Amino acid sequence: MDADKKRFMNILIGGEAGQGLVTVGQILAKGLVRSGYSICVTQDYQSRIRGGHNTFAIRVGVEAVNAPQESVDLLIALTAETVGLHRDQVSAHGLIVIDAALDIKGDGTLTVPFSQMAADQYTNIAALGVCSALLGLDEGVVAQTVVDFFGKAHPDVIEENRRVLNESHRWAVGEGVAFEKLSPLTRPPQRVMMNGNEAIALGAVTAGLKFCAFYPMTPATSIALNLAGWAHEMGLVVEQAEDEIAAINMALGAAFAGAPSMVATSGGGFALMIEGVSLAAMTETPVVIVVAQRSAPATGLPTRTEQADLEFVLHAGHGEFPRAIFAPGSIEQCFELTQKALHIADRYQGPVFILTDQFLADSYRAVVPFDLDGITPVQPWSTEGLKFAIPYRRFALTDSGVSPRLLPGLTQNLVVADSDEHTEDGHITEDLGVRQKMVQKRFTKGEGIRREVIPPELKGPERPDLLLVTWGSSKGAVEEAAEQLRSEGKQAAALHFSQVWPLVPEHFVDHLHGAKEVAAVEGNATGQLARLIRRETGFHIERLVLRYDGLPMTPEFILRALNP
Amino acid sequence: MVTLKDYGQYETAWCPGCGNFSILEAVKKALVASTLEPHQVLFVSGIGQAAKAPHYLNANVFNGLHGRSLPVATGAKLTNPGLVVIVESGDGCNYGEGGNHFLAAIRRNIDVTMLVHNNQIYGLTKGQASPTTAEDFVTKAQPEGVLSAPFNPIAVAVAMQAGFVARGFSGMVDHLAELIQQGIAHQGFALIDILQPCVSFNKVNTFSWYKERCYPLPTEYDPTDWGAAMKQAVEWGAKIPLGVIYRNERPPFGKLVGRGPLVGKETDRGVIGKIMGGFR
To answer: In chain A, where are the structural domains located?
Structure first.
């Protein structure tokens, strides 16, 4: 290892909405991934299209990076406001890159004559050139990324972007700035750049998704937008519904007729869908519901993150019925758990949830391309091995609670489903004996769901002094905090739940009892998982590390809270 | 050859004398006249006395939530365009709770036939005003009379240039059956608003009230003339026109989406590999 080179670095690009900072951020992030580095992107933006102040942070590393970092090594300030807001975060050897025209000078500041290099609309690319030179990136890799990014633009525009990149890169190299470059990689791994929402969309189509209905709502929208972009070549229908109530009911109609279906929304939109959740359970219709959490109640902080909808999703829907709730903590888990969600929904014929959030939705990471071999898509129309009596009864009582499912119109058999309590053949009933049997039937399916639960993942020693319990997108921050504590000599471990319902106590109670101290780390104000664990196991996690300021969990936040 | 017998005969939960019985008969007649077999048809209904109708014949049925039949029907039709999809529910369900879906379905021109049992009252919840209840109508919930103006579904549908807009009356079963048959044959969204008495809770708009006022549109009436249709759409009171009030040949939504059936569609792993490559 070259002692002069950095193995981790945090780059923060800040500016107004409309200045192209996301463009620069995405190109730089992809250039880093193509150069073989790991990244973890945190996007912080306001609920507006122009103005305000937004940031795009890229934490980059030679080894895996799975969490954001608060201190900044390289601050690319597109406005003076960026410097004011983030100067305090800049580390001792950090550098602030700023437009010479803004007249901000001082130690640790690199002023760049952007106006001499590029017209106003290309300033962001000039900043990219300076940044890539400071990091020691190969200009060719970045230039190719720029060309790919602007692929459909006019050739003159692409050419000007290239020229500006080249000139700014050359300028920065010529300045000979004292800034530690990233440690170069001898054998850069081949990886792709993907965020959480992209991985959910990709996981869904891989698992055979055919129908998605949605009503736009940050931070869930890009799931549907990705699917819409692939809809033509994949043969999907992606429909923008008139409201969220329509979205889930459309998905249920599509699923009833045989299309593996999904909806994606955030808390407020999900609130509107809830009667449909209950309907999915009663009519035993498979549907995957993605809830991308953001700060609430009500409209809350529309573009900020939170993990406060666990109890909401767990209890959503009137009446009692089984459900599964997945909470991916990484891009890979977004991909894998979305597939699993579609399969569980299909196998147990009911609603299945994915709880993600703004941080993970927008967080680009470097991932090894997913292996598609051996993945079986859901095919509800397949009647292979399906045994059923004639006349067909959609809700025939079985040992597993799962009834053989036929689809309407594909056979001579009639498929009847009802939101009322119903007989085995799907018709309204007020026979109270049948009612009891149907409740039991639905909960018998729950036992199957429970048998397929993914146990929480323990990282660190089996019997630690401190066990940090977490779920969903806080995974990376918690695991890194535990690692940091171990490097300081403390026996710390992390326990991450990627499925938060059902909870199977025998999967994890030994871990809880085996630790000297247990703390729950959650992105909410009350410790919802801790409360759920207590309800299900009686184990009281007394120490809580909670964050509810709209920002993602970071290792620094956790360590500060643990060692005040 | 399909016959009325194939659609069965069931005991119902309706009041004796309810207009629903005649509507059920007309629906069965229309299905037989359309030579459709029960398994080719999907009924989607909501909640209310009218929404129970699909339970009383043989067909595929999804009896969902109050007001939400149209989105369910939309999803099902896009998934399996081979199904004949019929929405059947009451005025409260379709025009009240489901009002936004009614507008959206017209805009999409989804190839679904919507049968609205319109008795101008809530029956199942025992006599509150519906969106189509006349002004000043007194109910237990509106003891000083209805203060809101009634919703005119025909005028709204014609104004929005819905694909097929018709009005029938439960007292004219054969005429109604023919309208339903035409609605099913229409490629696109078809609304059939069906006037019917509620013998228990609407003592004003009775069978004879409708009988005295309803008249079939003359054969020379041209339902493709939008201007003329708008005039007919607002005729209400002393005389109430029945028949196809407006129609056009706008292509149905599913055809514009152009995906064909989603059910049975294989997942192309090659395409997914290509998409993943795009993330490099």
So the answer is: 8-190, 194-367, 457-562
* Mutate which: A250, A427, A429, vs B, most B CBs within 10 A: A250
DSSP 8-class letter at A402: P
Fold exhibited by the domain A457-562: Rossmann fold (3.40.50)
User: Given CB atoms, is B138 within the 8 Å cutoff of chain A?
Assistant: no
For the domain that residue B200 is a member of, what is the CATH number?
Answer: 3.40.50.970
Please report residues of B whose CB lies closer than 8 A to that of A286: none
Instruction: Count the Cβ atoms, other than its own, within 10 Å of residue A210.
Output: 31
CB contact under 8 A, B68 and A276: yes
* Helix (H), strand (E) at residue A288: strand A287-293
Q: Which CATH class is domain A194-367?
A: alpha beta
Q: Which CATH number fits domain A8-190: 3.20.20.10, 3.90.226.10, 3.40.920.10, 3.40.367.20?
A: 3.40.920.10
The C-alpha of A162 sits at a distance from chain B's nearest C-alpha, in angstroms, of 20
Distance between terminal CA atoms of chain A? 34
Q: Which domain holds residue B260?
A: 4-277
Q: Please, are residues A245 and A251 in contact by the beta-carbon 8 Å criterion?
A: no
Cβ of residue A295 closer than 8 Å to a chain B Cβ = no
Question: What sections of A87-154 are H helices per DSSP?
Answer: 114-117, 123-135, 139-149
Give A307-338 pLDDT, tens digit per residue.
Answer: 999 999 999 999 999 999 999 999 999 999 99
Q: Please give the pLDDT value at position A4.
A: 46
**Residues B279, A198: C-beta atoms closer than 8 Å:** yes
* Token pair of B186 as six digits: 């229409």
Residue A220 clears pLDDT 50, i.e. is over it: yes
Interface membership of A286 toward B (CB under 8 Å):
no
Residue at A42: amino acid letter: T
Q: At what angle do helices A139-149 and A123-135 cross, to 10 degrees?
A: 150
pLDDT at A444: 98
The mean pLDDT value for B205-229 works out to 97
Q: Is the pLDDT of residue A2 over 60?
A: no
Number of structural domains, chain B?
Answer: 1
Mean of pLDDT values over B129-146: 97
Is the pTM value of this prediction over 0.90?
yes
The DSSP code for A428 is B
Distance from CA of A127 to the nearest CA of B (A): 23
Q: Which residues contact A12 (CB under 8 A, 6 or more apart)?
A: A55, A56, A57, A72, A74, A75, A76, A86, A89
Residues of chain A positioned with their CB less than 8 A from the CB of B79? 210-211, 237, 253-254, 257-259
Lowest pLDDT segment from A88-92, A130-134, A186-190:
A186-190
Query: CA distances (Å), A183 to each of A38, A63, A143, in order?
Result: 12, 11, 20
User: In this structure, which amino acid lies at residue B28?
Assistant: K
In the structure, what pLDDT confidence band is assigned to residue A3 with cuts at 50, 70 and 90?
A: very low
Do B268 and A420 count as a contact with CB atoms less than 8 A apart?
no
Q: Chain B partners of A249 at a C-beta cutoff of 8 Å?
A: 64-65, 68, 71-72, 75
Which chain A positions have a beta carbon within 8 Å of B94's beta carbon? none
B contact residues 94-113, partner A, Cβ 8 Å cutoff? 100-101, 103-104
Tally of CB atoms within 10 A around B207:
16
Q: What's the average model confidence in pLDDT over B167-186? A: 98
**CB-CB under 8 Å, B103 with A242:** yes
Q: Do domains A8-190 and A457-562 have the same CATH topology?
A: no
Run of H or E residues at A495: strand A492-497
Contacts of residue A427 in chain B, CB cutoff 8 Å?
Answer: 55
Please give the Cα distance from B227 to B224 (Å, whole number). Answer: 9
What is the least distance, in Å, from the CA of A113 to any CA of chain B?
32
Does the model's ipTM exceed the 0.90 cut? Answer: yes
Confidence of residue A401 (pLDDT cuts 50, 70, 90): very high
